[in-house]
TrEMBL record:
UniProt protein name: RidA family protein
Family: Belongs to the RutC family.
CDD domains: YjgF_YER057c_UK114_like_2 (cd06150)
InterPro entries: RidA_CS, RutC-like_sf, YjgF/YER057c/UK114, YoaB-like
Species of provenance: Guillardia theta (strain CCMP2712) (Cryptophyte)
Length: 133
């Protein structure tokens, strides 16, 4: 964990800092920011989306949050025409129906040829909400 930063939100917590390009998780001011998640496990959009959402669940838990605390989600699809409905089917089964985030979904070139989906989320930390009561 690396701290730093000043301001009303307290220290910046950085987790999963082994990647030279970015931190995997950054927590500041009661907000949890995850880097974009991908998975090249699986040959189709449904299996890749399931694996990405499993990774997001694990990272949110590591940061002290969960999918019921999501604020926003950004989704990139390699081929939006082909994969939008399959990704949505998995997303709809996963997302907390009572606490849906804002969301955008666009088509984009992903970092590796085999990748079909990338998802980045931002969430609230439950600990921060309790500390403000």
């Amino acid at each position: 964990m690396h701290g730093g930063g000043e301001g009303g939100g307290g220290a910046v917590r950085r987790l999963r800092t082994g990647d030279p390009r970015c931190s995997g998780i950054v927590c500041y001011g009661g907000i949890v920011y995850l880097t974009g998640q991908t998975s090249d496990e699986g040959e189709d959009i449904r299996s890749q989306t399931r694996r990405v959402l499993e990774k997001i669940d694990a990272l949110l838990a590591e940061a002290g949050s969960d999918k019921s605390r999501l604020l926003t989600a950004m989704i990139w699809l390699k081929d939006i025409q082909r994969d939008f409905h399959g990704m949505n089917a998995v997303w709809n089964d996963w997302v907390d129906a009572e606490n849906k985030p804002t969301r955008a979904c666009v088509e984009g070139r992903l970092a590796r040829e085999k990748l079909l989906v990338e998802i980045q989320v931002t969430a609230v930390s439950p600990q921060s909400a309790r500390s403000r009561l």
